[in-house]
Structures are given as C-alpha cells and as structure tokens.
Amino acid sequence: MNGKEDIRPISYIKANAAEVLDQVNESRRPVYVTQNGEARAVLLDTESYEKLKNAVGLLKLLTQGEEDIAKGKVLSQEEFFLSMDRN
What we know:
Layout: E1 7-9, H1 10-15, H2 17-27, E2 31-35, E3 38-43, H3 46-70, H4 77-86
Parallel strand pairs: 1-2
Antiparallel strand pairs: 2-3
Function: Antitoxin component of a type II toxin-antitoxin (TA) system.
Organism: Desulfitobacterium hafniense (strain DSM 10664 / DCB-2)
Protein name: Antitoxin
C-alpha cells in the first residue's frame, strides 16, 4: 500500500472514476475504497484479479490434497498409473 494514493473515499471514486481506474491499471496496486472512514471494498486491475483467483484455486487444491493425505486417501504411483490404464 502506498499511503493516500491507495486509499480513497467512495466520494472521490464517484467523482474521479476514470482517473482511479487509470491509476489501478498503470500501477497494478489495489485501491482501497472507504465509506464513513471504514474500508469497504478493493479495486484491482483485471490481470491482478485473475492472478489472485488462480492462486486461490491452487491453494484450494493443495488444501484438498493435504486433507486427502491426512485421511489416508492416497495411491501409490503404481496403483495410480494402473487405474489410469484401465480408464
């Protein structure tokens, strides 16, 4: 976060939407939107948003894999490839 440039009240966003969007897209930094002095939303450029979504998806897969390992839901490499050959 870069201080005042990255935190804007909703009234500023309403009055300067194009400028704020340019800032977000050029800097690739999020802008935190406040309302009544509290953080209410975050504006991201689309590329950063897609990267964030992909990272969260990977973390979900890792978490699922760790849960499977903890529950003993695993196959040996040989068993896995045999099951792939059958399908």
